[in-house]
Amino acid sequence: MPESRWRSRCGPSVAHTADGPLWTCDACGRDWPCPTLRATPTDAARRATLIPEFSRITRRAIRDLRGQPGGPDPVAIVRRFLWFLPLTDEEARAVALRLR
Questions:
Q1: Do residues 62 and 99 lie in contact, with contact meaning Cβ atoms separated by under 8 Å?
Q2: pTM of the model
Q3: Which residues, including other chains, have CB under 8 Å from residue 71's CB and lie 6 or more apart?
């Protein structure tokens, strides 16, 4: 994700960015979105901003991660990248199918 775009949306977590195909955090090396980024408050206004951007990112992550040996399945990827939404497994599966 372009850093300037991320900075304007999520404030201090700008260093905790990532890109495919591995989707690990540039700052801490953990699976992204990393715990530091996930700790960013996600009130209703923030979620409204995050949903379109993270939906786009989740689509790319599904393509990048689903074929890796031992990699997560699409449902796990959706739950990982849309952590700020309380999705059931069925909802995450439906999102994954739509974003494939």
A1: yes
A2: 0.81
A3: 65
Q: What is the rounded CA–CA span in Å between residue 95 and residue 89?
A: 10
> Is the pLDDT at 58 greater than 60, yes or no?
yes
Buried b (16+ CB within 10 A) or exposed e, 40-66: beeeeeeeeebeeebeebbbbbbebbe
pLDDT band at 1 (very low <50, low <70, confident <90, very high): very low
Domain segments of the chain: what residues? 3-99
* Cβ atoms 52, 100 nearer than 8 A: no
Could you count the other beta carbons within 10 Å of the beta carbon of residue 38?
Answer: 14
CA distances from 94 to 8, 91, 99 (A): 30, 5, 9
Q: Does 9 or 36 have the greater pLDDT score? A: 36
82 vs 53: CA distance, rounded Å: 10
